[in-house]
Specification:
By secondary structure, this protein is α+β, with helices and mostly antiparallel strands. The protein is built from 5 helices and 13 strands. The protein starts with a helix and ends in an 11-residue tail after the last strand. The strands form 3 sheets. Strands 3, 4, 5, 6, 7, 8, 9, 10 and 11 form a 9-stranded mixed sheet that branches.
């Protein structure tokens, strides 16, 4: 038994918490949307705010609170860029009653002591659903109309994305709502500072499956290098069969 298998079976290493599944899921969806949702003023970055991110970014750039970030760093501040899309993950639904059969072997990759191992274990796939709230901030009301047209024309049907989790390709789907809403000011005055005339809000639903491995069944993966290509009947060899192709009359 190799060392990494022993660690997993004895509980020293948990294969189900080595990589962040939901982080990779959200990144895959946001990257796919950023590639598809483009307006005339340019691509729209899709970002998730984290507490303290803006302060850490400014301190890293030696911001002294006396100049605007673009003047101090000669860069456009990502958190105040227009257009932009701010994403906020909300509720997450797990459906354990829809788990697949626990007797299906699943293959995964795991790293231990700077070495990458390919292992197999009994695997179940848990269906999950999560909501992602999106707020688009745009330059003008006309651009909000353009954005809604882009969303409807490109994302109205269910979208499929792929991402790699523990060496395996995982599929996920998302879809936009049938109703999109915008915020705009209808009564303007000289003292108006509200920017509601350039905001589009929407919520998308993301679905995927989370693989869950049984640690006690982990074994080292052994690929088949010499597949059997001979057939025997009553101890006598018969014609070889090519499993990679089919021929018919």
């Amino acid at each position: 038994m190799i060392e990494v298998v022993r660690k997993i079976r004895e509980g020293e290493l948990d294969p189900n918490n080595v990589e962040l599944f939901f982080s990779k899921l959200l990144k895959a969806v946001l990257k796919d949307m950023a590639n598809k949702v483009v307006v005339k003023s340019g691509p729209i970055p899709h970002i998730i705010y984290n507490t303290g991110d803006d302060i850490m970014w400014l301190l890293e750039k030696d911001y002294d609170h006396s100049k605007e970030p673009v003047d101090n760093t000669n860069e456009q501040y990502v958190y105040s860029r227009v257009p932009r899309a701010v994403a906020q993950p909300s509720n997450m639904d797990v459906q354990p009653d829809q788990l697949t059969s626990p007797y299906v072997n699943g293959q995964f990759e795991i790293e231990d002591n700077d070495k990458l191992y390919t292992l197999t274990a009994e695997c179940r796939r848990m269906p999950i659903k999560t909501q992602l709230e999106l707020k688009y901030v745009l330059n003008s009301f006309t651009e909000t109309l353009e954005l809604m047209q882009v969303l409807v024309s490109k994302l109205v049907f269910i979208q499929t994305v792929k991402f790699v989790y523990m060496g395996q390709t995982i599929l996920a789907t998302y879809k936009i709502p049938e109703t999109l809403s915008d915020e705009h000011q209808v009564d303007l005055s000289g003292s108006t500072t509200d920017e509601r005339n350039r905001i589009v809000n929407m919520s998308i639903e993301i679905e995927s499956t989370l693989p869950i491995y049984e640690p006690r069944t982990v074994i080292k993966y052994t690929p088949i290098t010499n597949p059997v290509n001979k057939m025997f009947v009553n101890g006598n060899e018969i014609d070889k069969r090519d499993n990679a192709s089919r021929k018919g009359r």
